[in-house]
Amino acid sequence: MSNRLAFPMYAVNRNDTDALWRAVQHLLVARGVPAGELIPGGAEAALLAHWQQPDLILSQTCGYPLVTQLPNVQVVGCFHYTSPGCEGIHYRSFLVVRDEDKHKTVADFRGRRAVCNSPDSQSGFNALRKRVAPVLLNDYFSGVTFSGSHRQSLVNVKRGEGDIAAIDCVTFALLQRHEPALLKGLVAIDRTPLTPGLPLITSPTTSPEMLHAIRDALNALVSDPEYRGVRDAVLIKDFSEAGRQAFSHLPG
Q1: DSSP 136-150
Q2: Same domain, yes or no, for 99 and 187?
Q3: What is the pLDDT of residues 206-224, one digit of tens each?
């Protein structure tokens, strides 16, 4: 069975993510949108395939794969998050190092080792690439390794397996809440410029009427007091409709 509705990107706490799923599913079904069933583990095992499902109702992707690997999906909009580093639909990454390097600048890390979550990540790779441009990452740093997740990037830096990592500010805030011990001994020395946040997407075959219903459900999610606890748990403050053009600058 495919997962037609999923929130795989900020699933730091599974119970909170599942509660968000159930709230959105309820709102979608009330508007005649068949959202399917909650599948434990969501779409994390094969994200690109999940995002390309022909019957996808709603998911959250990253801006970089949106513009480089997902040319046909429709953009529904973006959530606004309450975490430090966010402004409206925009977010940024924190450049995180060990405490022993807290007085250094990004320039001091030239020739040292960077850890990125994935080569198709806006917050963990492309944001860092732009931060040191026009020098290529592999020329700026003595080594660039890929950890598989923001959480693992932090673990690798903490262990000394890398020296600096760019971490999505929403992920960072959620880890501060749920895994504060993980961040002990780490500090953010800089931040990247603001960029549009993680886009909510739907299938290219989703009709205009269904797209309107999905957006209406998300507007209800962020405005109805009934869902305040669900929103607060995952740091969602608001929702804005947005199109693909909002992300067109990301690959540059």
Answers
A1: -HHHHSSEEEE-SSH
A2: yes
A3: 999 999 999 999 999 999 9
